[in-house]
Sequence to fold (353 residues):
Amino acid sequence: MADILPECLIQTILCFLSYKEASKMSILSKTWLQASSTLPGLEFCLHSVKCNIKIVDTIMERYRDGKVPIKKFELSESNSYGHKVLPPIPIDNCLDIALQNGVKHLVLDRISYPTPILTILAAKSLRKLVLAYYTLSLASSVVNQNSLRKLSLSHVELNKNMRQTILNSCPLIDTFISENRIGLETAYLQKIKSVYLKVLKIWYRKGILEIDAQNLVSFEYTGKQIPESKIARQLEHSKISLYSLDNINADWFCKLRKFLSKSPASWSQVSIRFEEFTEIKMCYRIVGATTQVDVLEVNVLFQYMECSSFVDALLWSCPPRRLNLQLKLNMFTAFSDRLMYMKNSTTHGTIRP
Fold:
């Protein structure tokens, strides 16, 4: 009965399991053994204490000898001794085989071994690259990578020019994610420029100063500064998420209004999270045109009873068609009272919900 399914369907089933779980299914029949031995997705965790790299190399050499295609290769490293420094585990062999066998999706997580990034970028088959907790260094000249479409850098130490160097070397990237831990001083970025970029997620304390991406569809950002932008045309879908990590003031709301007004005529969604604010003394001068927001999500992480100036500034900078609130109870009450006052007031001027 175990052999009634074709091998391609068995592999589809096994792809929903981890590599270890899929290997256990090989006892069902020869067909299941063959399917589990040629899985297109491989996921390994290297243990610094057990040093199980030889087992990984043996499996990868079988894939090399059988010329088995690899769609996804994920390699992570676990250090059982916590913060104790242990010798890096060499991964040259298994990584080279994955690249030779046409890997399309490569994930390297917490790898301490100095990985040849130029070799990775030279792979013509690679479509998606994920690097996490990784020290990246580039030579003065980098190879052109015209197959890579998605790049994710999580807690990867970069200097201010390295991101743009990567984007220049991989011009067809449409999704770029960069997340860095707080306190990474080299994470500062002056500009992102790409013609094909559609999805951009930047998450760290220091700010982007300029975004030049004419085809951008989705944008998520965390930092002190609200970036400048050169998004020239109306987009079908646009989303921005701002997480203010510091105390906000009137200048912050002016920059937000200016940013939104220089971008598409309307935004599908604007999500804002605040950690703190004081009374905001706004001078409602003309700063860019009013930009309509379809959905405005507001998340305030503290309790604050008097928030009329905050509500005024918020709705002046990004007036929404629909408002979603995530607030403490007393903050929600004060927010609602201010909205009702603004709705009923006939002398409030241009600040309307």
